[in-house]
Design a protein that fits this description.
The complex is a heterodimer. By secondary structure, chain A is mainly beta. Chain A has no helices and 11 strands. Chain A is globular and about 45 Å long. Chain B is mainly β. Chain B is built from no helices and 11 strands. Chain B has strands at residues 4-7, 10-13, 19-25, 31-37, 43-50, 53-57, 64-70, 73-78, 87-94, 104-105, 109-113. Chain B is globular, with a radius of gyration of 13 Å. Classes of the chains: A mainly beta, B mainly beta. Chains A and B meet through strand 4, strand 5 and strand 10 of A and strand 5 and strand 10 of B.
């Protein structure tokens, strides 16, 4: 069935360091891969997404890479700040599926000053 | 203006009761969803409606019944609440197109069954 695995489950970094979160998806038809950030007690909010027609996308300190052959995508956060501390979720969806998002289990990122 | 709003934000109720959660979006999106987030923060889709039509119905107990009176509203009614129903329920919406696009989430409803 459809599955998205996400690693690590927790990540602790010092302010200014980089953080990398990795996801692997099982449905080879997936073509949309969003990343959501969820702060404590808040709603998940999109921070970046990538479609299967590109291999990399960057937005300031955040970047996402996609390897369709390996069915693997990653989130890279550079120059981390304390306000980056949150739970991050990767997700995948396939075309024609009404954007049914299959989420990874989440990564709790802690950025220490 | 809040794009996706759901009420109530908190809901505490006894086992066996029936309760409803309401959701509204003002983004003009065609598709709305209910997601459940359990105590381990795992997010799982429950239902999806497109233009008032049920299109996704995951393996959810039939005590859960979604209703969409129009494409801007999607409500969730839960009968005979059980302890295991305690979770945060998120409503979301997105626009259907050639490519999937961002799903916008409501602020969540924290349901506690005692």
């Amino acid at each position: 069935g459809e599955n998205v695995e996400q690693h690590p489950s927790t990540l602790s970094v010092q302010e200014g360091d980089s953080a990398v979160i990795k996801c692997t998806y099982s449905d080879s038809a997936s073509n949309y891969f969003p990343w959501y950030k969820q702060e404590l007690g808040k709603r998940p909010q999109l921070i970046i997404d990538i479609r299967s027609n590109v291999g990399e996308k960057k937005d300031q300190r955040i970047a996402v890479t996609l390897n369709k052959t390996a069915k693997h995508f990653s989130l890279h956060i550079t120059e981390t700040q304390p306000e980056d501390s949150a739970v991050y979720f990767c997700a995948a969806s396939r075309p024609g599926g009404y954007n049914k998002l299959i989420f990874g289990a989440g990564t709790r990122l802690a950025v220490h000053p | 203006d809040t794009a996706v709003s759901q009420t109530p934000k908190y809901l505490v109720t006894q086992m066996g009761n029936d309760k409803s959660i309401k959701c509204e979006q003002n983004l003009g999106h065609d598709t709305m969803y209910w997601y459940k987030q359990d105590s381990k923060k795992f997010l799982k889709i429950m239902f999806s409606y497109n233009n008032k039509e049920l299109i996704i119905n995951e393996t959810v107990p039939n005590r859960f019944s979604p209703k969409s009176p129009d494409k801007a509203h999607l409500n969730l009614h839960i009968n005979s609440l059980e302890l295991g129903d305690s979770a945060v329920y998120f409503c979301a919406s997105s626009q259907r197109g050639a490519w999937n696009t961002e799903a916008f989430f409501g602020q969540g409803t924290r349901l506690t069954v005692v």
